[in-house]
Each structure stands twice: as C-alpha cells, then as structure tokens.
Specification:
The chain is mostly helical. It has 2 domains: 2-96, no CATH class; 111-208, minor pseudopilin epsh fold (3-Layer(bab) Sandwich). Helix content is 48%, strand content 10%. A 3-stranded antiparallel beta sheet has the order 2-1-3, with helices on both faces. Strand 1 and strand 2 form a beta hairpin. The longest helix has 24 residues, at 33-56. It binds fe (ii) ion (FE2). The site of fe (ii) ion has 7 residues, from helix 2.
Length: 209
C-alpha cells in the first residue's frame, strides 16, 4: 500500500483508494475528521467506484493511468470518463500533498523552493496571497493550482469541476468544491484556505517545485 500511495500516478484499473500516511483525524483542527470521512472515505470512493464501473467492460482502457484516461477522454469527448478519472486524479493529488500540522507552517521547505517562490512571486506572503485569491476566484466548484510549465516556470491557475491543468506539471492544489469545507467552515472558503496552509506537506512541495 505504501508503494501504491507513493506511485498512484502509475496506477491502472482496478483503481482503489490510497492508504494515506496520516489518519482521518490527524489534520485537525485545520481539516476535521468529519470532513475527511465525507470527502476522502465516501466522495473519493464514489469517484473510484464510478471509474471502475466504466472501465470494467473497456479492456482497451484498463492499462491506462489516470492521466492517460483523461487524455483519452478529452480526445474522444467522453464526458463521464473525463469527470470520473479527473475526480480520482485531483483527489489523489490533493490528499497525498497533505500531512498533519506541526505548528510550524512552513517546516520542510528547502532553500531552493524558497528561491523559486521568491523569484516568481516576490516571497511566500505574496505567493500565498495570489494562490488564495485564485482559490477564491473559482466560481462554483473546482481547484486552484501551482504548476510549472515545460520551461520550469511557475504559475498559478484554476480548473473548473474535475478538470486537470493541461500541459504543465502540478505542484500544489487546493480543492475548493464546497464538499471540501462546508462541514467545518460552512461557506467560508477563506477560512478553509487559511487552514489549508497548516497541513500542506512542504517536503513533498519542495521535491516537486
Ligand atoms: Fe473534493
């Protein structure tokens, strides 16, 4: 399971939920167990089940990774496959970039990561403000992302629904569907974004950037 959790981007049919490196109450008080049960245990499981159901009779798609399935769905305008595979990809990305709060918000960040953030955004404060503004700007359901393009340049972007960022490598995302925060923060997306920073795995972030 440990390997599957680390290598989920290589996973193919049948998809299964990841064993996270933290328990469902480990992100409290920033993301509570009730939210994690609804979001990780139930909602993500539904996306996985739906995706497996689609693939059950599609032998031609069973060796594809999530990104390959998403590309296939885009090319073939298969909206349902696109939604389910995107939902699994985005949630796997989100839940594996988190870790229990340590009390030190930016512990684990490498000097190289700080250098890149500073070079692009002027510093952590500005980066977090711009990322939060992007997350707040998502109308309805979606995600905000920090990504790097083919030249290694950082940029902040957003995706609607279960779309994934195109032609870039994701580094960080925040799920801003209401299901990610309404059980704890009601409709206060800003409060959820503030809490999110406490549970980002900055070691993983630094490896990706
Ligand atoms: Fe979600």
């Amino acid at each position: 399971m440990e390997n599957a959790t680390q290598n989920w981007e290589q996973m193919t049919y049948p998809f299964f939920n990841l064993t996270l490196n933290y328990s469902l109450h480990a992100l409290e008080p920033h993301i509570n167990a009730k939210t994690m049960c609804a979001h990780y245990d139930r909602l993500l499981a539904t996306y996985i089940n739906n995706l497996n159901q689609i693939l059950e009779t599609r032998l031609d798609l069973q060796n594809m990774t999530l990104i390959e399935l998403i590309d296939y769905a885009e090319t073939n305008r298969d909206i349902n496959l696109r939604r389910q595979a995107g939902g699994v990809y985005n949630h796997f990305f989100f839940f594996t970039e988190l870790r229990p709060a340590t009390g030190q918000i930016i512990i684990g960040i490498t000097p190289q990561a700080t250098q890149k953030i500073t070079a692009t955004f002027g510093g952590w404060k500005t980066f977090k403000e711009q990322f939060a503004n992007a997350a707040l700007s998502v109308f309805g359901s979606g995600y905000a992302w920090l990504v790097k393009n083919n030249k290694g340049e950082l940029r902040i972007t957003t995706t609607a629904n279960q779309n994934v960022p195109q032609e870039c490598t994701p580094i960080l995302c925040i799920d801003v569907w209401e299901h990610a925060y309404y059980l704890q923060h009601l409709n206060e997306r800003q409060a959820y974004i503030d809490a999110f920073w406490h549970v980002v795995d900055w070691v993983k972030f630094s490896e990706r950037i």
